[in-house]
Design brief:
The protein has 1012 residues and is an all-alpha fold. The chain contains 38 helices and 4 strands. Strand 3 and strand 4 form a beta hairpin. The radius of gyration is 35 Å and the shape is elongated.
């Protein structure tokens, strides 16, 4: 199963490249993947259904501490669903090869997404872990959004895709809460184990929580399967290409909600709200969908509302919790997948060959395409429940089950209501099935015959195969019955033996004799035929009925109300005042903790002291911090204020050092230095002086808020430290670090081994932050594509206005090289591009002396950090400071010469290194981010103990260097260039076009990477 998933996603990843070479014929290659998986599935039949067979399971630990596993299980329900997912998926991909044209855009992405969707659906139906199932659930949501919005230039497609995403994602979030509640109540997230515990969970002390969890899960199922009141998104999704409608909205995605109901039904049908939700919403959906289908003039929308109706029908039957209903429900699910996929593919052919789907314009299509009409007739007849077809066999079983349900005691009026509602819904189904065939193929009086192109056999092959399967299913339902019986038997396990279970489930057959169900079928045929032939009267009645509440309109009103509320709240909170924002944040941050402290009314812990008697230097450091804070408040220059804030940071670093935390002290000092540089660079674009933008009446308020926040945080920290009643887990960290992580530096080993997931998340945030900063500075591009000076050294300076920036900068740098004393490129040659008043010979000399030492020291911090103070984060900051020195000494041209690799590339390499170091252990049979200790001997160096988590630390190092480089290029080099362009822009405005061009690298008076 894991291999099947891996193949689907791997081929999907390379699909765009295949389409570039083979065009639309690449769909045949993609179809081979689900087709091969379908063949593999058939070979699993003996393992699933053989004598004494148990459900096949594959389990790979993922996050053992959270109990999350790659757990997959192939039982009868998963096998039947996989037949539909893989079989129909392969046929739809084959159909796509003739549906699309080579000139159609985005085919590669579309094919990749459709194949990945098939893999995600297979993962969803085979997952045996609740959270793993939810991951695949959301994958299908995202992929369906992309597939529905394939025609991205059409407003209707984008709107429908977003609507489907919003509705199904909202339901998915509710479902996630329910899954977590259910897993927590059961003590496991394994679905098979939860179903075994279901009787105790439903009647035990956690019954209330379990009932609420089941309701939340059903909400997710209802939204996914488009049941009332969320049915409106499915007809809207018909903006998608027809293959998407045939696969996602007939055979696969919309069946996901039905699958969840079927999966939970054996254990949780006795919960309080199960039957009202499943039966009530299912029946309402069947009737609403059938009623709306009769009003449509687009044959695709007739099928769409018919799908809504059928989904409600299937959900209701599957959720009854009876063996015969379970058998009938899965039989109907398979039949529906066959006939509805057939009909959607037929609609695609009609639209493709005639250019319209409007029943008011279609006329005489059957005469032009008899084979197509026969295929469509088989599908429509199966949908209507005509004998000898799969739909008839399944619907007869459903009616039998409902007759038994209506006669069973203990359900009150539910049984009779369900039976009457299904009969009425079946009448509507017959009527709209006939409407579809008449609208698509009949000759209509007064309507000109529709021009229709000839259909290639390869185009008709997929729906033809599905129609043949529908016929085979109807004439020979024995195999389908055998596939479903093990699932139906789950509803009687524990109370009956196997023979009793099979008897209670009944069986699928073409002829059950003269039964009440057959009589109800005859009634539906007669009433449905009457509705079709009296369609003019039905149309008038429907037109006379006042419009009911439109769910789609309700959705639009809800979204509009949310938008209005957001605008109202934003207008009253986002006022453009930094003082206001800080006042709100800090007020909340001290009012809530202070209220909690007052409500607790606990005394302060004993043993408090103002200064550590063993470290009197703390008083000096504390005084420096206070003085720096007060000086920052009173400063009237921005540079002085930032400098004083840094004084507080360096004071905190000294506190860490005095308290025996050299790692924290080193990191704090490096971080503070980098932040100081970033602030100073950014402030060049701001006025030098600080102006008080608020009136004097607010100063007292700001002082009160600031002092209150500080005091509250101090007392909250004191109470928190004194509230500990258990032994801190950190006491075990030194032992874990040495024995498990192979290092003596507890801090570093914790970051790269014990809490590696946290660190990976943090460096991902760093990469996002760097991208955000770059996005704010670089309007048209990140600046990563700037060529190095050596690449443009041969360029020439064209006219000053309109010359390419890269060529212009390269020419300026090439000009400075001509004055170099050495033949090779001297180090810091770019310093000559600085304006004379901005150069500092002493600074350049110091940079020449310390740059290489700082780089070497950064590598030392990286490699020694496992046992000594340092690590990848500190080493990366040190390397970043070395680059900062070189930039300050030589300007933006020197920064480009010093770092030929772009910041974005470095960030990507760092994240890739960290990711591979975490994934590699899994390939070797271990766990994610598991580290290994390798001991060996080398000449000169002697005995070496290498811990593989150092590779992860190397990724951290590279990410931090990339972050600093991005900051230097964003807040340094890019702002430098803006300063340089100001004189040129001024000259352009003055019309000075005749003056000899000055090398753009050295305009007089510019500010270039030096200190402000």
């Amino acid at each position: 199963m894991i291999t099947v998933l891996a193949v689907h996603f791997a081929v999907a990843a390379v699909a765009p490249f295949v389409f570039r070479k083979f065009g639309r014929n690449a769909f045949y290659g993609l179809a081979a993947v689900p087709a091969g998986s379908f063949v593999w599935l058939l070979f699993q039949h003996a393992a699933v259904y053989g004598a004494g067979a148990t459900a096949e399971a594959e389990i790979v630990p993922w996050i053992p501490s959270l109990g999350i596993e790659f757990a997959f299980r192939m039982d009868a329900l998963a096998w039947v669903m996989s037949l539909l997912v893989l079989g129909v998926g392969a046929l739809v991909l084959v159909y796509c090869a003739r549906y699309f044209k080579d000139k159609d855009s985005y085919l590669g992405g579309f094919g990749a997404q459709l194949l990945a969707f098939a893999g995600a659906m297979f993962g969803l139906v085979t997952a045996d872990d609740l959270l793993m199932m939810f991951i695949f659930w959301e994958l299908t949501t995202v992929l369906s959004y992309l597939l529905i919005g394939y025609a991205r230039t059409r407003l209707a497609a984008r709107r429908s895709a977003l609507q489907a995403l919003m509705v199904t994602t909202a339901g998915g979030l509710a479902m996630l809460v329910g899954l977590i509640m259910l897993g927590a109540s059961a003590g496991t997230y394994r679905i098979s184990a939860i179903l075994e515990q279901a009787p105790g969970l439903v009647s035990g002390p956690a019954a209330g929580a379990v009932g609420a969890a089941v309701v939340l899960i059903l909400i997710g199922a209802v939204t996914k399967s488009a049941l009332v009141p969320f049915h409106f998104w499915l007809p809207g999704a018909m903006a998608a290409p027809t293959p998407v409608s045939a696969y996602l909205h007939a055979a696969a995605m919309v069946k996901a909600g039905v699958y969840i109901v079927a999966r939970l039904a054996p254990g949780f049908t006795d919960t309080t709200y199960w039957l009202p939700l499943v039966l009530g919403l299912g029946l309402a959906t069947m009737l609403v969908g059938g009623y709306r289908a009769l009003r449509q003039t687009d044959i695709k929308l007739i099928l769409a509302y018919g799908t809504v109706s059928q989904l409600g029908f299937i959900t209701m039957v599957v959720g009854l919790g009876k063996p015969d209903a379970a058998l009938a429900g899965l039989a109907m699910l398979l039949a529906h997948g066959l006939f509805k996929a057939t009909l959607f593919l037929v609609v695609g052919i009609i639209d493709h060959q005639s250019g319209t789907r409007d029943i008011r314009k279609l006329s005489g299509v059957f005469r032009s395409a008899r084979a197509l009409g026969i295929v469509a007739g088989v599908g429509a007849a199966s949908m209507a429940g005509i004998p000898l077809l799969g739909g008839f066999v399944a619907k007869e079983s459903v009616l039998e089950a409902l007759v038994h349900f209506a006669a069973a005691p203990g359900y009150g009026p539910w049984g009779a209501v369900a039976l009457a509602g299904v009969v009425l819904g079946s009448v509507l189904t017959f009527a709209y099935s006939a409407r579809f065939m008449w609208g698509a193929f009949a000759v209509k009086p007064g309507v000109e015959r529709t021009p229709f192109k000839a259909i290639r056999p390869s185009f008709l092959a997929a729906p033809a195969v599905l129609s043949v399967l529908t016929i085979v299913y109807g004439l020979w339902p024995v195999p389908v019955d055998a596939w479903i019986q093990p699932y139906a038997a789950l509803f009687t396990e524990g109370t009956h033996d196997a023979a009793t279970a099979e008897g209670a489930a009944g069986h699928l057959a073409l002829w059950h004799g003269l039964t009440p169900a057959l009589g109800l079928t005859a009634i539906t045929f007669a009433a449905g035929a009457a509705m079709f032939y009296g369609r003019a009267v039905v149309d008038r009645i429907q037109s006379a009925v006042p419009p009911w509440f439109d769910a789609d309109r309700g959705y639009q009103l809800t979204i509009g109300a949310l938008d209005d509320a957001a605008v109202w709240i934003t207008g009253r909170t986002q006022r453009g005042s930094l003082y206001f924002y800080l006042a709100v944040i800090l007020s909340v941050a001290f009012v809530l903790p202070l209220s909690a402290l007052i409500a607790a009314n606990k005394p302060l812990p004993e043993g408090l002291y103002f200064v550590d008697p063993n470290s009197p230097l703390q008083l000096v450091a504390g005084a420096g911090i206070v003085i720096g804070a007060l000086a920052a408040v009173r400063a009237n220059k921005r540079f002085l204020a930032v400098l004083m804030v840094s004084v507080t940071g360096y004071g905190i670093a000294l506190m860490f050092a005095l308290q025996g935390a050299p790692d924290l002290a080193l990191t704090q000092m490096l971080v503070e230095t980098i932040i100081l540089v970033a602030f100073v660079l950014a402030m060049r674009s701001l006025p030098a002086e600080l102006r008080d933008r608020t009136g004097g009446k607010y100063r007292v308020v700001r002082v009160i808020i600031g002092l209150s926040f500080g005091a509250t945080m101090v007392f909250a920290a004191i109470h928190a430290m004194g509230a500990r009643i258990a032994t801190p887990v950190s006491l075990e960290f030194p032992k874990l670090a040495y024995e498990g992580g192979g290092g003596l530096n507890v801090v570093n080993v914790t970051l790269v081994d014990i809490r590696a997931w946290d660190t990976f998340g943090e460096i991902s945030v760093l990469a996002l932050a760097a991208t955000g900063v770059a996005s704010l500075i670089f309007v048209r591009g990140r600046g990563d594509r700037l060529r190095t000076a050596s690449a443009v050294a041969e360029g020439t300076v064209g006219r000053r206005h309109g010359v390419d920036k890269s060529s212009r900068d390269g020419a300026a740098l090439a000009l400075t090289r001509k004055f170099a004393a050495a033949a090779r490129d001297p180090w810091l040659v770019a310093g000559r591009t600085l304006a004379p008043e901005r150069r500092s010979i002493i600074f350049e000399v110091v940079t020449r002396l310390v740059f290489h030492s700082m780089i070497i020291f950064s590598l030392y911090l990286l490699l020694a950090g496992h046992n000594l103070p340092g690590g990848g984060f500190a080493g990366g900051l040190m390397a970043g400071l070395a680059l900062t020195l070189r930039y300050l000494a030589g300007g933006r041209f020197e920064l480009r010469e010093a770092t030929p690799i772009s910041a974005g590339t470095l960030l990507g390499i760092g994240l890739a290194t960290a990711s591979l170091s975490g994934a590699a252990p899994v390939l070797l049979g271990g766990q994610v981010f598991q580290s290994a200790i390798i001991e060996f001997w080398l000449p000169v160096f002697g005995d070496i103990k290498f811990v593989t988590s150092t590779i992860f630390d190397t990724g951290v190092y590279i990410v931090v260097v990339g972050l600093v480089l991005d900051v230097l290029r964003s807040l340094g080099a890019e702002i430098d260039e803006h300063f340089e362009e100001r004189p040129l822009q001024q000259e352009a405005q003055d019309g000075d076009e005749d003056r000899e061009p000055v090398p753009t690298g050295i305009p007089a008076g510019s500010t270039r990477g030096g200190t402000p």
